[in-house]
TrEMBL record:
One of its GO terms (biological process) is enzyme-directed rRNA pseudouridine synthesis. It is an enzyme of class 5 (isomerase). This is Pseudouridine synthase. Belongs to the pseudouridine synthase RluA family. Responsible for synthesis of pseudouridine from uracil. Keywords: Isomerase, RNA-binding. The active site is at 157. Its EC number is 5.4.99.-. It catalyses: a uridine in RNA = a pseudouridine in RNA. It comes from Desulforamulus reducens (strain ATCC BAA-1160 / DSM 100696 / MI-1) (Desulfotomaculum reducens).
Length: 320
């Protein structure tokens, strides 16, 4: 069921607390005839597409009002009721804003798609707290006087380049994650692999789990999580193939591990593949993403041009 218009009806409510004036903002929703009989909880989850975590947060803050009064989640709605939802605004970025270059491929009110360069982390991890896409994006938003937690919807390995989606708020993140689960959010990758792939197109369905001895690696494991990768050969060179890949699942290292398992490891991949004089990182690029617009529901497709090192590697493969 398509979401109703959500953010047009937005109004402030002034309240006094501890002797100080505070202003709360609410999103207001008029209940239509077709949604009469829904419980408040069902309406929040299925129509407004709020996550369970966000509903819990709203409940704790008494941020759900029905006709101006607090309400319990199992209360049934009537047509023409007004449901008002507290705007849980972000108070920080979640990372330290840091000046740095980002390439915005697409932006609207709900999300951004950035072009990640190779050798950069998507977000801080371990002892790396600076120099990531998340740090640079926080600075980009701060310069525009926007306070929003940095929410990557999916991630790429440090050495992989290409499209990464960031949601601008928790509701958008939840909807995009649902699109990922339902496979209406699609990701396409290009990879250069060793060998002439046979058959030239197919599906790799091999479960992935922890490596038995190396904590930073993954392994094909019959007790692991289902993992499905579709591939198609775009070009064949002497002893090298250029593949296009689509994911049904998004496990850690999935493409790299699946291709190595198939016998066609990614060139430049020092963990699962083979080193190459043509490129100093794994030749894997998140070529494009497509998803449904979060308000108007039409399809958006965003493409990340091949970076110079990847394009040069293809040229080297093509030389006699």
């Amino acid at each position: 069921m398509a979401p109703t218009k959500t953010w047009e009806n937005h109004y402030p409510v002034a309240i006094y607390r501890e002797g100080r004036l505070k202003v709360k903002s609410y999103h207001r929703h008029k209940i239509s005839q077709e949604h009469e009989g829904f419980t408040v909880e069902n309406y929040l989850k299925n129509i407004l597409q709020y996550s369970g975590r966000k509903i819990q947060k709203l409940t704790r803050r008494k941020g759900i009002l029905l006709n101006g009064k607090t309400v319990y989640l199992q209360k049934k709605l009537n047509a023409e009721d007004t449901l008002s939802i507290l705007d849980l605004e972000d108070t920080n970025y979640g990372v330290q804003p840091e000046k740095g270059a980002i390439e915005v491929l697409y932006e609207d009110d709900f999300l951004l798609v950035l072009n990640k360069p190779a050798h950069q982390l998507v977000h801080p991890t371990g002892q790396t707290t600076r120099g990531t896409m998340a740090n640079y994006l926080a600075y980009y938003l701060k310069q525009r006087n926007v306070v929003s937690a940095i929410r990557p919807v999916h991630r790429l390995d440090r050495e992989t380049s290409g499209c990464v989606i960031f949601a601008k708020d928790s509701r958008s993140q939840f909807i995009l994650e649902q699109q990922l689960k339902e496979r209406t959010l699609k990701r396409t990758y290009w990879a250069l692999v060793k060998g002439i792939v046979h058959p030239p197109s197919g599906t790799i369905d091999a479960p992935i789990g922890p490596h038995p001895s190396l904590a930073n690696r993954r392994a094909i494991n019959e007790h692991g999580e289902q993992s499905i990768t579709h591939y198609q050969t775009l070009r064949s060179f002497p002893e090298i193939s250029l593949l296009k890949l689509n994911l049904d699942t998004g496990r850690t290292h999935q493409i790299r591990l699946h291709l190595a398992h198939l016998g066609y490891p990614i060139i430049g991949d020092r963990m699962y593949g083979v080193r190459s004089p043509w490129i100093n990182r794994q030749a894997l690029h998140a070529y494009d993403v497509s998803f449904r617009h979060l308000k108007e529901n039409h399809e958006i497709a965003v493409h990340a041009p091949l970076p110079t090192d990847f394009a040069q590697a293809i040229n080297f493969c093509d030389k006699p």
